[in-house]
Predict the 3D structure of the following.
Amino acid sequence: MINDKKVLYSGMQATGNLTLGNYLGALKNWVSLNEEYECFFGVMDLHSITIRQEPASFRKRARNLLALYIAAGLDPVKNCIYFQSHVSAHAELNWILGCFTYMGELNRMTQFKDKAAKHSDNINAGLYTYPVLMAADILLYQSDYVPVGRDQQQHLEITRDIAQRFNAIYGDVFTIPEGYYGKRGAKVMSLQDPSKKMSKSDENPNGSIYLMDDADTVVRKCKRAVTDSGSEIRYSEDKPGVSNLLEIYSACTGKSIEEAEKEFDGKGYGEFKPAVAEAVNAILEPMHKEFERILQDKGYLDSIIKENDEKARYFANKTLRKVRKKVGFTDIPR
Ligand code: TYM
């Protein structure tokens, strides 16, 4: 608890072009929850270097991501929005928790297997221990809730296991976090292959709607989205393409799936697909405008970064001091 509020923590990697999946699975929920909780949102730049980054564009991407958090509606005064690499406690706790994580546990991580297959020329140790750093992120802030998409569920479970193991040895050091998954949009699928999740690293750009796509591109991608046999607009397992579009429509408009089905009852894809595009654009267009405005004000962004770095460091170091003491490190003379 901070200021009588429960703590919420989440973040995104500063890699690739963010997709609508990132928005609907994570960012949108952050915005809806941020009044109720004490929130920390990291730009996960330490995690990002598990895949090679070109320094200049990486730096720009990380700053843009922070601006995008604000553009999406997170007030940087009420929420702590910061760069993970600016708070060295993340890397320190990562090491300590690594000594409380078993290789057998890490071997089971499906995301590691997927990423290792995709980047077979660079299967580095960071990619392997990635979930330990994620546990450090979450546990440093004594987080109660972690709003993420379904693809992060396994990482959240290992975080809980590590925390419980540590607490069993040293007493109640860490709050045990719970995952928070939105009702809709927790797993947005590719528009070209609805058996795969919508992903930044999809080779087929038509499979993903990127948050920076302009309105015409969104319309085109929705029109081209694969659908299923039959022309009915109905949510069902044997209609993964249409179900995914309904999911997107529902998450963007706030209407339930049943309402959406009713709305398009008796109508064809010719009406449905443009309506999905319109619902997406109604979210993206104001976000683009706000994003451009924020980026232009360099001084504003710099001051936000400085203030929030300090806030994040304060809370992170509080936990780290406790952990250092518990494991028996000698005091650092002041
Ligand atoms: P990342 O950067 O891959 O994705 C950011 C968030 O977007 C969600 N997401 C999706 N949700 C629904 N449908 C999709 N197709 C989709 N694709 C991505 C992800 O679930 C995530 O919530 N490991 C994390 C970053 C991280 C983190 C943390 C998150 C590092 N430390 C601590 C929470 C707490 C990641 O790679 O997310």
